[in-house]
Amino acid sequence: TDFETILLERKGRVGIITLNRPKALNALNSELMREVVSAVEELEKDSEIGAILITGSDRAFAAGADIKEMQPKSYMDVYLDDFFAAWDRLAAARKPTIAAVAGYALGGGCELAMLCDILIAADTAKFGQPEIKLGVIPGIGGSQRLTRAVGKAKAMELCLTGRNMDAEEAERAGLVSRIVPAADLLDEALQTATTIAEMSLPVAMMAKEAVNRSFETTLTEGVRFERRVFHSTFATEDQKEGMAAFVEKRPPVFKHR
Ligand code: HXC
User: Fold this and answer.
1) What average pLDDT does the segment 125-149 reach?
2) Cα gap 64→76, rounded to integer Å
3) What is the pLDDT of residues 36-83, one digit of tens each?
4) Ligand 1 centroid to 13 CA: how many Å?
5) What does the pLDDT read at residue 42?
6) CA distance 94 to 101
7) What Enzyme Commission number(s) apply to this enzyme (predicted)?
8) How far apart are the CA of 239 and the centre of ligand 1, in A?
9) How many CB atoms lie within 10 A of CB 126?
10) Mean pLDDT score of the chain
11) How much is the ipTM here?
12) Is 87 exposed, middle or buried (0-12, 13-18, 19+ CB in 10 A)?
């Protein structure tokens, strides 16, 4: 498939989507949104792919929704178009998704990173929800996902003042899983993605589904959900293989990768 605003490549079992609008610091316009969603859908269908990695450039993961595209829009334009709703498709991806973030991840850029399951940051990363400075609020889930990730006090401060936080602060607050030197970002993220992609795909999808459930339900229901899914892993060939491999002191060869 030919894309204008992203690059799509496959490395082993990992699909890599690179945001590629360098002149606009990867600002998220409608075309880029359509292309990312279409690439994710393509990778979701591809049985050779076990994990999806999304990254930007050294300077910017993405500096937000495209302000120049948004500027002329009216309430009716954004309401009738359900502006930004297509990003929900990324949140709904069943395969594990990883955001590798260097430089600016602001506004929609921070929200795009938070739509992914794992967020790995370069030491150059800067996160923020500066929408308020433009007279709007986050529109791709930032007010909800940032609050769940870092708690109310910091989410409130970031959304109300528009200030950025650096990678250290983001890691301390629990937004990112780890920080790596900028030069190693892609290698490290690819290694993590590859590790995941070598696991049993259905079981990785079940683990993802179980963790995500914790954001949607009570503890009792979440634990019940987890137990049902845990039981169902015993119906897979990969559970048989994983446990046999341990007992036989050899690496597992999962069938459903
Ligand atoms: C469109 C953008 C852009 C954006 C940068 N550019 N961010 N274009 N939308 N979000 C463009 C600039 O206009 C400029 O193009 C080029 O990218 C380089 O940016 P500079 O500003 O010259 O770079 P620098 O001085 O290094 O500053 C980097 C920056 C700044 C701090 C990231 O660009 C910035 O503040 N950008 C906006 C960040 C922001 O407010 N994001 C939230 C957007 S709202 P030209 O052609 O002029 O040289 C959002 C809403 C989500 O995400 C949902 C709510 C509805």
Assistant:
1) 98
2) 22
3) 999 999 999 999 999 999 999 999 999 999 999 999 999 999 999 999
4) 33
5) 98
6) 21
7) 4.2.1.17
8) 48
9) 22
10) 97
11) 0.96
12) buried
3-class secondary-structure state, position 171 = helix
| pLDDT score at 257 | 85
CA of 49 to the centre of ligand 1 (A): 33
| Element housing 117 (H / E) | none
d(CA 47, CA 43): 8
Cβ–Cβ under 8 Å, residues 125 and 182? no
Q: Is 166 in a helix, a strand, or coil?
A: strand
The preferred substitution site among 23, 61, 67 for testing ligand 1, maximizing ligand atoms within 8 Å of CB, is 67
- Which residue's C-alpha comes closest to atom 40 of ligand 1? 130
Active site residues: 65, 108, 111, 131
Torsions phi, psi for 140 (to 5 deg): -125, 35
Q: Does ligand 1 have an atom closer than 6 angstroms to the CB of 35?
A: no
Question: What is the rounded CA–CA span in Å between residue 170 and residue 180?
Answer: 13
Strands 97-101 and 14-19: unpaired
Identify the residue whose tokens are 């987890």. Answer: 226
| Closest residue CA from atom 17 of ligand 1 | 24
Half-sphere exposure (Cβ direction) of 141: Cα atoms closer than 13 Å? 19
pLDDT at 75 (0 to 100): 98
Each residue's pLDDT tens digit, 175-202:
999 999 999 999 999 999 999 999 999 9
